[in-house]
Design a protein that fits this description.
It is an enzyme of class 1 (oxidoreductase). It comes from Vreelandella janggokensis. Keywords: Oxidoreductase. The protein is of the alpha/beta class and 337 residues long. It starts with a strand and ends with a helix. The strands form two sheets. Strands 2-1-3-12-11-4-5-10-8-9 form a ten-stranded mixed beta sheet, sandwiched between helices. The chain has a two-stranded antiparallel ribbon with strand order 6-7. The chain has two domains: 201 residues, Isopropylmalate Dehydrogenase (3-Layer(aba) Sandwich), CATH 3.40.718; 133 residues, Isopropylmalate Dehydrogenase (3-Layer(aba) Sandwich), CATH 3.40.718. The radius of gyration is 20 Å and the shape is globular.
Length: 337
């Protein structure tokens, strides 16, 4: 059965890692049809806007998008493209796995955890930010709703249930931020009672960060609010080797966008040394979402095999001597057998 998806190649190294990723998807014979759409700096030059309406329409039509890294220009007048996409499509769940792979520069082995971050409210609401007192005081509103808390916590528990995971940890700061963080924690406790077979743990965010550094293996699924999840998911990426191994899924009721969470790295654009793993792992998340679990598993196993056994094909950031293309070559060879 074929499925059509929107593809945003992205800025900087985006086209290079996207081409590598699509080669692997094609080698797996996933039956995907691609509609390439514009966003980012290329769209700004071509259409005068970072996200043309035609691109939004395409994502809505297909319901699925695979996205390379995008650059938001520095300066006033430009808001984050990722935030715009998440709000436009109400992509409330940001799902960030952190999984250990061999041959990487990481301090731990055998990490396998997922951060589930509320993606649409919390501290990132632009309409709650302003300067007053002649610009000498800045105000920012943290808005947390029962609806937003319920759906993100339930998503985390359902994810744990469907993936055979044993524990969900709700991370908060309710001891100090008693309203917004307190509401999130109250809701998490309520939802947890509906899942008696899954262990529930609650942890204050500063302690959670310390525990992640000292003993990350105690965590399984972490669910938290927007700002804390943004910080913690990058911390978790650092535990397994960095953002080059960090995929992200942005899930809503009617659309989902899968992405490499690292930047566009313009300093290495065109050098063919960009690591494609994060986008490849995002593509695996996309295949899981499309109920192609076997093909998603093949990508993950293939990445593991290449990192362990084909060091000459691995990109320099992971200690290899290869290129973006040779990594894709090795992975295509693996999934083709």
């Amino acid at each position: 059965m074929s499925h059509s998806i929107a593809v945003i190649k992205g800025d900087g190294i985006g086209p290079e890692i996207m081409d590598a990723t699509l080669r692997v998807l094609d080698a797996l014979d996933c039956g995907l049809d691609y509609e390439f759409i514009d966003a980012g700096l290329g769209a700004l030059e071509k259409h005068g806007t970072l996200i043309p309406q035609a691109s939004l329409d395409a994502i809505e039509k297909h319901g699925i998008a695979l996205k390379g890294p995008l650059t938001t220009p520095i300066g006033k007048g430009f808001s984050s493209i990722n935030v715009q996409l998440r709000r436009h499509f109400d992509l409330y769940a940001n799902v960030r796995p952190a999984i250990s792979f061999p041959g990487t520069q990481s301090r731990y082995d055998n990490i396998d955890m997922i951060t589930v971050r509320e993606n649409t409210e919390g501290a990132y609401l632009a309409d709650g930010q302003e300067y007053i007192d002649d610009g000498n005081t800045a105000l920012s509103v943290i808005k947390v709703t029962r609806k937003g808390s319920e759906r993100i916590v339930r998503y985390a528990f359902e994810l744990a249930k469907s993936n055979g995971r044993k524990k969900v940890t709700a991370v908060h700061k309710a001891n100090i931020i008693k309203t917004s963080s307190g509401l999130f924690l109250d809701v998490a406790r309520e939802i947890a009672e509906e899942y008696p077979d899954i262990e529930f743990q609650e942890m204050i965010v500063d302690n959670a960060c310390m525990q992640l550094v000292m003993n990350p293996h105690q965590f399984d699924v972490v669910v938290t609010t927007n700002l804390f999840g943004d910080i913690m998911s990058d911390l978790c990426a650092g535990l397994v080797g960095g953002l080059g191994l960090a995929p992200g899924a942005n899930i809503g009721e009617k659309a989902a966008i899968f992405e490499a969470v690292h930047g566009s790295a313009p300093d290495i654009e065109g050098k063919k040394i960009a690591n494609p793993c994060a986008l490849l792992l995002a593509a695996a998340q996309m295949l899981d979402h499309l109920n192609m679990d076997d093909k998603a598993t093949a990508i993950r196993k293939g990445i593991r095999d290449v990192l362990e056994n084909r060091r000459d094909m691995v990109t320099p950031d992971m200690g290899g001597t290869g290129t973006t293309d040779t990594f894709a070559d090795a992975l295509v060879d693996y999934v083709g057998h």
